[in-house]
């Protein structure tokens, strides 16, 4: 008994399992990257390496600010910076892990981190908590924009990398919100 002919002409989805089984056997050493992967994996690896650099620079900036912060509100601000720093490092590691899955090598070379990062490393005076909070808010707003662009570019071509970037983006938006609260904006 066949259901053919009962679907509308726009719903012509046919899963060609035979062809897919043939294709995946050709390049077994590509691991999870198969013929149905919808982006150039080298481009995605390059974009993810810039994300790694960005996250490491964000970790460095938050860590520096957390340690050097001084003044009456030091404890609260420093605790927030420390928590954000830990999450930025986690983002770097998750992006690096995905680069490995795509057959690339994560680039942690300190000589190139600053030039590849979307955000800047800054060192406001230790007693200027307001400048620290504003620098970090600016950085968070930059990555919110650049990660949104990356997510739109990935589209349906690489759903796993897109979900990773969406999950990181969600935390960057929480970071920006935390900083706005501390700034009293
Ligand atoms: Fe991050
Ligand atoms: Fe962040």
UniProtKB/TrEMBL annotation:
Note the InterPro entries from the entry.
Dps-like, Ferritin-like, Ferritin-like_diiron, Ferritin-like_SF, Ferritin_DPS_dom
Residues reported to bind Fe cation: 55, 91, 140, 172, 175
Q: Which cofactor does it need?
A: heme b
BP terms from Gene Ontology: intracellular iron ion homeostasis
Could you confirm whether the keyword Iron appears in this record? yes
One GO cellular component term, please give it.
cytosol
Q: Which UniProt keywords apply?
A: Iron, Iron storage, Metal-binding, Oxidoreductase
EC number(s) reported in the record: 1.16.3.1
Matching Pfam families: Ferritin
Q: Which Gene3D superfamilies match?
A: 1.20.1260.10
Q: Which residues form the Ferritin-like diiron domain?
A: 38-185
Q: What is the top-level taxon of the source organism?
A: Bacteria
- Which GO molecular-function terms appear in the entry? ferric iron binding; ferroxidase activity; heme binding
Q: Which PANTHER family match?
A: BACTERIOFERRITIN (PTHR30295), DNA PROTECTION DURING STARVATION PROTEIN (PTHR30295:SF1)
Name of the molecule in the record: Bacterioferritin
């Amino acid at each position: 008994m066949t259901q053919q002919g009962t679907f509308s002409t726009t719903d012509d989805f046919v899963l060609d399992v035979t062809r897919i089984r043939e294709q995946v056997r050709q390049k077994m050493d590509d691991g999870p990257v198969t013929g149905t992967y919808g982006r150039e994996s080298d481009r995605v690896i390059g974009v993810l390496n810039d994300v790694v650099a960005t996250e490491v620079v964000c970790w460095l900036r938050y860590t520096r600010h957390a340690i050097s912060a001084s003044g009456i509100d030091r404890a609260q601000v420093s605790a927030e910076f420390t928590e954000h720093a830990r999450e930025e490092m986690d983002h770097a590691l998750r992006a690096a892990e995905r680069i490995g899955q795509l057959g690339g090598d994560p680039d942690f070379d300190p000589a190139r981190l600053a030039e590849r990062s979307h955000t800047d490393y800054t060192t406001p005076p230790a007693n200027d908590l307001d400048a620290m909070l504003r620098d970090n808010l600016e950085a968070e707003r930059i990555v919110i924009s650049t990660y949104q662009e990356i997510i739109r570019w990935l589209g349906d071509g690489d759903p796993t990398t897109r979900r990773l970037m969406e999950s990181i983006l969600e935390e960057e938006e929480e970071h920006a919100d935390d900083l706005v609260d501390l700034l009293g904006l």
